[in-house]
Design a protein that fits this description.
- The protein has helices at residues 13-18, 20-25, 31-36, 40-54, 62-76, 79-91, 96-101, 113-126, 134-143, 146-169, 175-185.
- With 196 residues, the chain is mainly alpha-helical.
- The chain starts with 12 loop residues before the first helix and ends in an 11-residue tail after the last helix.
Length: 196
């Protein structure tokens, strides 16, 4: 049971208008946003930050950004965000082989070296204490420019916020997110946990 009950999607018109962004990414407005709108300034700021972070400015594709989000969410244990990230990766064209083998990104041939280092960065930056070091910096710089690294860390940081929000709130998972979680992550032990 969630800590706070989500409000109706039409509770705040400005939030509702901004939240159409999620119809593309997820196919629904997330319950997390519906909870944030109890303080509309938070929901609106969050949606605008999400849109800015997920905008494509270079070679970091929409699908890779969502896989980065999944690795970050997996590192912190937020099952709600794991399901959302894998659903968005699916909707943004991640290859089926990557979706099915994201747990094994370090060794699976579906991932390029550039993708592996991006996902390693997500894992290292999401840990407490933080594990980003000079070796990882050198690996990142050999595949990605500074703007692309900023984009990646934007995703990691955004999901740091979301992981804490949704795990603390016990946000209820939506049916579409449950379907994607079960399809792509279930074989590795993913379950809804407290997000029911």
């Amino acid at each position: 049971m969630p800590l706070i009950t989500p409000l109706s999607p039409d509770h705040d018109q400005e939030t509702q208008d901004l939240a159409t962004f999620f119809n593309e990414t997820l196919g629904f407005c997330p319950n997390s946003v519906l909870t944030m709108q109890r303080r509309p300034a938070i929901s609106k700021a969050f949606i605008n930050l999400n849109k800015a972070v997920m905008a494509n400015e270079g070679r970091v594709t929409s699908a890779l950004k969502r896989l980065i989000a999944w690795v970050s969410s997996n590192a912190t244990g937020c099952r709600y965000c794991q399901a959302h990230a894998i659903r968005a990766a699916e909707r943004y064209g991640a290859e089926q082989e990557q979706l099915d083998n994201v747990w094994d990104y370090r060794t699976h041939p579906a991932f390029s070296e550039a993708e592996r280092v991006a996902l390693d960065f997500s894992l290292a930056a999401s840990q407490v204490p933080n594990a980003v070091d000079d070796t990882l910096k050198k690996r990142l710089n050999s595949y990605w420019d500074e703007g692309e690294i900023v984009e990646m860390l934007g995703v990691i940081s955004l999901f740091g916020y979301l992981n804490r929000w949704n795990d603390s709130m016990g946000t209820t998972l939506e049916n579409g997110a449950i379907e994607s979680g079960e399809q792509h992550l279930g074989k590795h032990g993913w379950e809804k946990g407290k997000h029911i």
